[in-house]
Amino acid sequence: xxxxxxxxxxxxxxxxxxxxxxxxxxxxxxxxxxxxxxxxxxxxxxxxxxxxxxxxxxxxxxxxxxxxxxxxxxxxxxxxxxxxxxxxxxxxxxxxxxxxxxxxxxxxxxxxxxxxxxxxxxxxxxxxxxxxxxxxxxxxxxxxxxxxxxxxxxxxxxxxxxxxxxxxxxxxxxxxxxxxxxxxxxxxxxxxxxxxxxxxxxxxxxxx
Length: 208
Hints:
Elements: H1 3-7, H2 19-34, H3 39-42, H4 45-62, H5 70-74, E1 78-80, E2 88-99, E3 105-115, E4 119-121, H6 125-134, E5 137-138, H7 140-155, E6 159-168, H8 169-172, E7 183-188, H9 195-205
Helix pairs in contact: 2-4, 6-7
């Protein structure tokens, strides 16, 4: 996969740097709403004028990850370790992202395990990395893969495993309307492709 994409260096629209584009996006959204049956007739002027800008603000916030460089998050937070070769787990990291098929949010929890070789990452950086990566338009499967492979590239470890459990608005509020449905995805590298290590990860993850 393109390393630029993994590091989130692609440009997106900035509310500070591109006010003309923001205004244009809001106008287009207003036009879309005006084409919705009876929308303009049943809404107040305040909603018609301000809702498009609110939606564009949400859209921009949901795509902030395209401008974030993961290098800036990790920085000097990689630390040398000696003689530690067991699993480290950071679990239940809350996140939200946006489905690239419907532009509707999905949200849930992400758990990460890794086996260090020589370095560990500061604990607070894991939720920061997850937050940065998830602020893009994604399929959950690809999000799970990218979190694992990005962490693997920085840690240069013996293996990484990432599990995501999420609820999808596109499943809950449209189409099948399966409100209790939850999607679980896993991506693993290195030693976690071996049953022994994966089972150990599951066992530790389920300890409460």
